[in-house]
Write a structure and sequence with these properties.
This protein is mainly beta and about 350 residues long. The chain folds into two domains: about 1-160, no CATH class; about 165-335, no CATH class. The protein has helices spanning about 170-185, 195-205, 270-275, 330-335; strands spanning about 1-10, 15-30, 40-45, 60-65, 75-80, 95-100, 105-110, 125-130, 140-145, 150, 205-220, 235-245, 255-260, 280-285, 295, 305. The strands form four sheets. It has a five-stranded mixed barrel with strand order 11-12-13-15-14.
Length: about 350
């Protein structure tokens, strides 16, 4: 693994502050598209270096629920569980692993005991949690020391309990981060790319445009069976706005479109956190019995996004046949022209 410190920390809200970037390169054996012994990039993206302890308590992000009074002897926190928890509160499962108070700092390490069994991955709600101190807060800096380097725990409005996101606030940076997750799934497929939107639509059962709702359904790996590979899937829930081909009854409804991923490559939480509500998408999908929601993206090209009128983002943008297709609108026009 190659790790470097970012020039500027990436604050994703709710106490999730990424300070480093990781690149993992592995020797690939058994793939059908590259010879055995090929070195390939298998993991890339921003991360936070976390303290590894002997506890089985999992990581959490911390934010202040309110600005503490200097005379207070308690801290009101919002604790966001990073593991999948089927959108359940972490109430009763939060543990203070370390609390150190000095004259200038309050140093906290907090984790969450995971729920048993397989869990889905819609966004976990922040859970209110109170920490009792030995002295008053005063002017001391409150630090999360579960990450290295420790960062200050601050009041973050984005960590407040559920509110409907303002989709107009989606940034190009968030869209690009989501596109990275679409591409970076840790699975190498051996197939012939399509010749463009028209052919990809012909391979698909439905083609539609819409926006992410922010909800993600994680389906853990299962035993392979007839018609199903057993791969784990991450399913993105999409508010459908326009159907270009296929079942038009999906308009103004939601559809879940899944993509397989390698759990050895990335956690489901990494995909969940990138799926910000309001991100525009255009999806080519086929019915699949192994996927949550019953739909999967048509090959690797079938899930596209873009920032405004900017270039396409996703696997299709990597292929020569798509080089002249420079926006989601152009993709839609080419699909409709061939109907």
């Amino acid at each position: 693994d190659l790790v470097r410190e970012l020039d500027e920390p990436l604050d994703q809200g709710g106490g999730d502050v990424r300070t480093h970037e990781v690149r993992s390169i592995e020797v690939i054996d058994g793939a059908t598209n590259v010879p055995d012994g090929t070195w390939m990039l298998t993991l890339a993206g921003p991360c936070a270096q976390r303290v590894v302890g002997g506890s089985d308590v999992a990581a959490a992000d911390l934010a202040l629920a309110e600005t503490p009074d200097p005379d207070a002897t308690t801290l009101a926190l919002l604790v966001t569980e990073r593991a999948c928890a089927s959108e359940q509160s972490a109430d009763g499962r939060i543990e203070v692993l370390a609390l150190e108070e000095t004259a200038t700092e309050i140093r906290l390490r907090i984790g969450v005991r995971p729920l048993p069994g397989a869990q889905n991955c819609p966004s976990n709600p922040p859970t209110p949690f109170q920490v009792d101190l030995q002295g008053t807060v005063g002017t001391r800096v409150i630090l999360d020391v579960a990450v290295e380097p420790p960062h200050e725990i601050t009041l973050d409005p984005a960590a407040a309990p559920a509110s409907v996101p303002d989709v107009t606030d989606v940034t190009c940076e968030q869209i690009e981060r989501f596109a990275e997750r679409l591409v970076d799934i840790g699975i190498a497929y051996d197939y012939e790319p399509s010749s463009g939107p028209a052919e990809l639509a012909a391979w698909s059962d439905v083609v539609f445009g819409g926006t992410l709702t922010g909800e993600v359904v994680d389906q853990p790996a299962t035993a392979p069976s007839a018609g199903a590979t057993g791969d784990p899937y991450v399913g993105y829930v999409i508010a459908v706005e326009d159907v270009l081909a296929g079942d038009t009854s999906l308009v103004d409804e939601t559809a879940t479109v899944a993509m397989a991923y390698s759990p050895a490559h990335a956690d489901a939480a990494d995909y969940t956190q990138a799926a910000v509500a309001g991100i525009p998408v255009l999806v080519f999908a086929v019915e699949h019995p192994d996927a949550p929601g019953g739909l999967v993206a048509t090959v690797m090209e079938g899930f596209l996004t873009a920032c405004g009128d900017g270039p396409l983002l996703g696997w299709a943008s990597e292929y020569g046949a798509w080089q002249d297709v420079d926006s989601l609108d152009v993709v839609a026009e080419l699909v409709l022209a061939d109907r």
